[in-house]
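Request from the bench team (R.T.):
"We need a structural guess for the complex before ordering more fe (ii) ion. Sequence and SMILES attached. Just send the tokens back."

Command: build protein-fe (ii) ion structure.
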Amino acid sequence: MVDHCLQASKLQAKVGAAHGPKKLMLAESATAPLSAAGRLESFNSSCVVLVPGNKLPAWMFADLRTDHAGEIGAVCIYQGVLKFARDPLLRAFAENHLATEQKHLRLIAEWLPKDQHSRLLPLWRLAGFLTGALPALFGSKAVYATIEAVETFVNHHYQEQILAMTSRIELSALRQTLLDCQADEVAHRDEAAAARGPSQSGWVLSAWCAMVGVGSKAAVSLIRHI
Ligand SMILES: [Fe+2]
Ligand SMILES: [Fe+2]
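Reply to R.T.: structure attached below.
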């Protein structure tokens, strides 16, 4: 099945190039003539590479709900930072990251039907805002350490989902979206770590960052259900 799907993926790439962005179904056999667009209608649905708007397997909804709520939280983190930060370097850092998180949110939202959104979004917005605003009141280093902690968590979170989707060819487009988001989160983490510098955080900041990690994990567990 996977072989068929892999061959079909190659076929889709060729046919897709010839037919533009129009949504195409994949052929059951990669030996189907590429010129016969009509035959594409008889494709095996089990090999369809899903695109935004397609119905996803139900087991994906809980994962995507966490991603969607997490990206909303990320947007609010940077809005919280920008509410109080005065350091121009920190503000530029937050504005850059905010634009990336807004892009992530748009990408994930395309995949998740509205009726699958977390019912606690106002809570995640508030939690995100406070996660950015509180350290911003204490200075740049606190913000950078917080972002490093958040993005370390998010990197692992996306990695688990990406690994679970490795052999699901029909989810390859969604997997690529998550890979793209993950690459940005890793860059955010590394940028924050570099800006924070090599000095050790004090115990208060270390405790705060540990709390952010534990809180993120607890939120994900809850969002999977609500
Ligand atoms: Fe993000
Ligand atoms: Fe990020």
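Two things stood out. Residues 1-45 have pLDDT under 50 and may be disordered. The two ends are 34 Å apart (CA to CA).
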